[in-house]
Amino acid sequence: MKKFYMILAAVAAMTLSAQAAQEVKTGSIQVGNFENPTEIYNASFFGVAPTNFYLAHTGSQMIFTANELEEMQGRYEVKINKLSFKFRNDDSFDEITRNVVVYMQAIDESEFAIVEGVKQFFNFENEVAQANLVYDMVNLYGEDVVMPFELKEPFELPAGKNLLVTIVFDAEDDDNCTYGTDAAPFYTSGIRHQAMTYTDNYNSFIEYAQGEDFPDATAMLGCGTDVDLPVTLIDYTYKTKKTAVEEIQAAQAQDNVYYNLMGQKFSADNLPAGIYIHNGEKVLVK
């Protein structure tokens, strides 16, 4: 019975040690040059991601591939907690208000499917953020403006998976728009073919996604299919991979110390016959 309790105590100690060893760290990934961007979108209003302020209702889908998120790969329990974009207010003096909903999914696809010559949006789910954005463009004239989205709960992205981000922007008033299509353009990463957009002045992207035309993306519906990824900053957390076994092995890495399978410590000078752990390896003493 004593041996049984000793085993339970050893398991509990290992669990606590593992929890203590898995330190939570933070990281961030720039897709494009987020800190010092230079290139802005130079396209029609339906070819800009994540949104444009020229129309009241927009939707965009963006694929961030595992290669673009390479820094996350191999890290333990990666969880995204914030997503940020950036635009420049070149020529708008309006007060812009948008209700925004963000969705995230892990996918295997790295590009949008084409069916009978028509690109297809993805079905989307898993809402991760909601926000009501208000931009007083008069006070932001001539400035770079960061658009951050804090996630309600961290989103765990499995290793090797691509990240699909869907963002829906809706104005409360269909007239709450800029007067020029390029009045407040977003900065672009220059990474092509990994984003698509929907634009309309009356109907939300969510309404479109519930209709018969979805998932077809056509110019007749105000959709852009050859869209650059915007410069994006992705903030995340992860845990170190250090485990209880590694901690025990480190503690045992003393030349003169041996442990039997019950966790009892012995000196090299007084070893009864049996199996021991020494410097992280099994040792048989006859």
Defining key terms:
six-stranded antiparallel beta sheet; 286 residues; 2 domains; 16 strands; mainly beta; disordered N terminus; 40% strand
Care to describe what's here?
With 286 residues, the protein is mainly beta. The chain folds into 2 domains: 21-239, no CATH class; 244-286, no CATH class. The protein has 3 helices and 16 strands. The strands form 4 sheets. It has a 6-stranded antiparallel β-sheet, with no helix packed on it. α1 packs across α3. The longest helix has 20 residues, at 2-21. The two termini are 27 Å apart. Mean pLDDT is 87; it is low at 1-11.
Secondary structure elements and pairings:
Blueprint: H1 2-21, E1 24-31, E2 57-64, E3 76-88, E4 95-107, E5 114-115, E6 118-119, E7 127-136, E8 144-156, E9 162-170, E10 195-200, H2 205-209, E11 223-227, E12 232-239, H3 244-252, E13 257-260, E14 265-267, E15 274-278, E16 281-285
Antiparallel strand pairs: 1-12, 2-9, 2-10, 3-8, 3-12, 4-7, 4-9, 5-6, 10-11, 13-14, 13-15, 15-16
Strand order of the biggest β-sheet: 7-4-9-2-10-11
Oligomer: single chain
Number of helices: 3
Total E-strand runs: 16
What structural category characterises the helix and strand content? mainly beta
Number of domains: 2
> How much strand?
35-45%
Unreliable residue stretches: 1-11
Largest sheet at a glance? 6 strands, antiparallel
Distance between the termini: 27 Å
Q: Quick one: overall form?
A: elongated
